[in-house]
Amino acid sequence: MTITDTEVTATPIASPAPTRRWRLWVAAAAPLIAALLVGSAAILWVGESPLEFFWLLVREAFGGVKRISATLVSSTPLILTGTATLIAFRAGVFNIGVEGSFVGGAFVAAIAGASLDLPGPIQIVVVLAIASIVGAAIGWGPGWLKARLDVDEVVVTLMGNFVVSGVVGWLLSEFFMAVGTGNAQTELIAPQTNLPVLVASTQLTIGILFAVVVVALAQWWLRSTVPGYELRMTGANPRFARAQGIDTARVIIWAMVISGLIGGLAGGVFTTGTLHRFVEGGGANLGFNGIAIALLARLNPIAIIPSAVVLGALSAAGPTVQLFIDVPLDIVRIMEGTIMIVAVLPLLTRSR
Amino acid sequence: MTLLDGILATSVLLAPAIVLAAMGGVLHQRSGIVNIALEGLILAGALVGLVSADALGSPLGGLAIAAVAGVILGWAFSAIVTRLGGNMIIVGLGFNFLVLGAAGLFLVQTFGSRSSFRPDDRLSLPAFGLEFLSDVPILGPLLARNDIVVWATIPIVAAVAFVLDRTTWGLRLRAVGSDPAASANLGLDVHGLQDAAGAVAGALAALGGAHLAIGATGLFSTGMSGGRGYIALASIYFGRTRPWATTLACLIYVVADAAQGRLQLQLPWIPVRLVQVLPYVAVIAVLIVAQLTSKRRQIA
Q1: What SS3 state is found at B195?
Q2: Is the Cβ–Cβ distance between A38 and A338 less than 8 Å?
Q3: DSSP A154-212
Q4: ipTM score here?
Q5: Is residue B208 within 8 Å of residue B22, measured between CB atoms?
Q6: For residue B271, which residues of chain A lie inside 8 Å, CB to CB?
Q7: Which residues of B touch A334 (CB under 8 A)?
Q8: What is the residue-level pLDDT of chain A in tens, covering all 352 positions?
Q9: Cα–Cα dist A339/A344, whole Å
Q10: Torsion over CA of B24, B28, B33 and B39, rounded to 10 degrees?
Q11: Total Cβ atoms within 10 A of residue B267
Q12: Domain count, chain B
């Protein structure tokens, strides 16, 4: 196994690389299979047929251009939050705070989008840049604390999520509430801030292209650049990385900044592409779901896309399927929980 | 009833859920496992407790069954981490997702309602106290009449402190937490001790959740744990895993939370959302200060 082999995901989070290819496939498929089994058990429990449920789900998610578009719309923020989580995890940093970066980015994108009035594409670029910067700042704090003071990043990011949502909630209710609505939401963003629609008469915007580009960049950056190599080394074996002369503290800070940046971008894309305003609780858990997606992808950037599409399909088809079976949201949660638990079990991948 | 009395009465009613979960978390954390699953365990306890109390027609029976369910779930969470080697943070978050989904599914399936379940008969826990104090300010709402779980919470905190500091089991638990490898070499059953602590943590958190549903609110909804598990976790860090200090942190939060709910009407200028953020900011601040002081000690 060479150092440049990106299938090696030996962070403390991921399991050691299996020695044989079939083991890799088993390990990759196990969380999804377990999720399908547990999900099926849950569906059986409510007296429905799992086969019928999943078939309905597949049809609703992929049957026709409109439905595929809807699935990709749900997948877009998930691809981004999954990639954001992946960057931190690959550096061996447990960033639970992508949720905070996402909420912060989504909120400032809505504020900037409603108050700025720049011509066309410039407006979009500026708004997304502001969202990304805010997300990056939210990632930087815990990263700096971990790298410089060795403060546990799990607790800081977990608690930080509550801080971000509280501060955002306060700003929203005090200063930015839309006039004349009872809901906790901002005004609509200026029309030129809305991401251009990709497929006519659907909600699919160029946001999905941003997401794919970010994945491609992450793949290239991790695999083929020196900072990407340093990041992987820091995650795989920090002591060895230091012995090689890598400034691991700097790497950790940068990993958190980039992770937060992508998380903030995800929030910005969600605001400009999907909701066109900030609604409190509107993107609930999209940041957390990034953890499940990064793990399902086994911390491999390219695999983020299919993983996000699987979970995106579940949530996009959910509302329609809900008309027939009154449970999909809960089934999705159960399957996500199963994926997270099974994906971190080293049993299947331990090489003997 | 004065404003202060009202705040104290609310606090007393809502304290057990957080304090009990935090005590479970303290035990588990001393054994080396950060219990992110407290949130899900509270929710599971609330659901199992209320449903079985309603089915049995016995609130105490509901508490007991919730505690048993908590033992099973808490042990399972711990065993997945210790025996199967799952990452404790991810497994904990996944566990919370699972419980949330299962609770929602159960609500829809059993009662046909997504939002909440409220039993037809009002269940109430046995309550008693120093009733002659009922007209005394401050002492009245604290001592005059509380339900059995509120009273039990005090000895439970004392018991956790005693067990950790004064018993062989507590010593072993702390040994396992501070150096699992050395403890294993000394012949301690590392996973067994950790999972036992996890089972106790599950029982306490579930008991707290059951009290929240049966004793405090009389209903179950999927949002009812409301971050209490994370507040308990925050309090554990704030109290540096010491039982009494952790309890104090929990109580400060509970009183502040009850106060902001009531003061909102009198003092509408208080930025409620910012006040709610304070416990989380405080935890981050405590962690930073702890690291700074330990660094200084290392240098000196």
Answers
A1: helix
A2: yes
A3: HHHHHHHHHHHHHHHHHHIIIIIPPTT-SSSB-PPPPGGGSPPBSSTTSS-BTHHHHHH
A4: 0.87
A5: no
A6: 170, 174
A7: 97-98, 101-102, 105
A8: 333 333 333 344 544 454 567 777 877 788 889 999 999 998 888 888 889 888 888 888 888 898 899 899 999 999 999 999 999 999 999 899 999 999 999 999 999 999 999 998 999 999 999 999 999 999 999 999 999 999 989 889 999 999 999 999 999 988 888 887 777 899 999 999 999 998 888 889 999 999 999 999 999 999 999 999 999 999 999 999 999 999 999 999 999 999 999 999 999 999 999 999 999 887 768 888 899 899 889 899 999 999 999 888 887 776 666 656 666 678 888 988 998 899 888 754 443 3
A9: 9
A10: -10
A11: 10
A12: 1
Do residues B21 and B268 make contact, with C-beta atoms less than 8 angstroms apart? no
Distance from CA of A194 to the nearest CA of B (A): 30
In chain A, residues with a C-beta closer than 8 Å to the C-beta of B281 are: 159, 163
DSSP string computed for A299-340: T-HHHHHHHHHHHHHHHHHHHHHHTTSS-HHHHHHHHHHHHH
Structural domain of residue B81, as residue ranges? 3-299
pTM confidence score:
0.88
d(CA A149, CA A249) in angstroms, rounded, equals 10
Task: Report the CATH number at residue B190.
Answer: 1.10.3470
Question: Residue A202's Cα: distance from chain center in Å?
Answer: 23
Q: Which two tokens stand for residue A143?
A: 């990263």
